[in-house]
Design goal:
disordered N terminus; 6-stranded mixed sheet; 287 residues; alpha/beta; 6 strands
């Protein structure tokens, strides 16, 4: 689903698919996971769009904004100049619209963790609360947290990292219940960054499979789906050094979520290019 880089490999990626909300929004940088032939991902900060420096509603800062709008609204002969201007126009318009909408979001009683991931989830919840103002109908949000490249200090760091994810997922689900949308919002983790079952002395090294979490009222919860590997070193699922072969593929996982999201069976290969290699296209964890 995405090109693996050192930065992306260091992320546990959490994506929120909402059936009622219309653009792809990332709260943690650009990602190929959000890219498509017909959609443009919008990237913003953990608490909302990054403001344009020097813009204002009065005086010199207002004149600066107007001058900038004249520049990006001009006609250009170069395709590169037109493309750059269009990106800037979208950025200004989206920042105004989303910032204004979030400011109108009703206060939530749900308390979110103060971590960067908690801030991202809180902003997503506020955007869902004003989905009508943003005229969104179907939406994917991307939030992320890092620190899982645990070659060192794994025993000390991993409990806090996983605890933060658990607390953030719990808070976000509580917020969707508070907003009355828990049955139409599904939160799922997505990462190919597994760890070995053997220690390198102070941590673990890069591996293959991992466990993902799916949360929401449209989920058949409290179950494990797929064949869990045999966690035996040098066993039938160990390809070397405690690197376990996954029981299910990323394509099956993606296809299952895509079907819930409304993708027709005939279109699933566009979302999961290798789904034809597997007899089971739907893992069954979505209602």
């Amino acid at each position: 689903m995405s090109t693996r880089t050192d930065r992306m490999a260091d992320l546990i990626r959490v994506n929120v698919a909402n059936q009622q909300l219309a653009t792809n929004v990332s709260l943690n940088g650009n990602t190929l996971f959000m890219s498509g032939d017909d959609t443009v991902s919008y990237s913003m900060g953990a608490t909302g769009p990054q403001p344009f420096q020097g813009f204002g509603t009065a005086g010199f800062q207002l004149e600066q904004r107007r001058a900038f709008e004249r520049i990006i609204g001009a006609s250009y002969g170069s395709v590169y100049a037109r493309g750059f201007a269009e990106v800037q126009q979208r950025a200004v318009q989206a920042a105004d619209r989303i910032t204004g909408a979030i400011a109108q979001a009703p206060p939530l009683t749900t308390v979110f963790p103060t971590s960067p991931l908690g801030q991202q989830f809180q902003t997503v919840a506020r955007m869902i609360a004003v989905r009508d103002r943003l005229t969104m109908q179907r939406q994917v949000f991307f939030v992320a947290t890092g620190g899982f490249d645990s070659h060192d200090d794994q025993n000390q760091n991993q409990p806090g990292l996983l605890g933060n994810i658990s607390a953030c997922l719990a808070a976000f689900y509580a917020a969707t219940e508070e907003l009355g949308v828990a049955n139409s919002v599904t939160t799922f983790t997505q990462s190919d960054f597994g760890r070995t079952l053997t220690s390198n002395g102070d941590g673990t090294d890069h591996a293959w499979g991992g466990v993902q979490v799916v949360v929401g009222q449209s989920v058949r919860g409290r179950q494990i789906f797929g064949r869990y590997p045999s966690l035996v070193l040098n066993g039938p699922d160990d390809v070397s050094g405690g690197r376990m072969i996954p029981g299910v593929s990323a394509d099956q996982y993606a296809a299952t979520l895509a079907r819930w999201f409304g993708i027709a069976d005939a279109e699933l290969p566009r979302v999961a290019p290798h789904i034809a290699n597997f007899a089971q296209r739907d893992l069954g964890f979505m209602i």
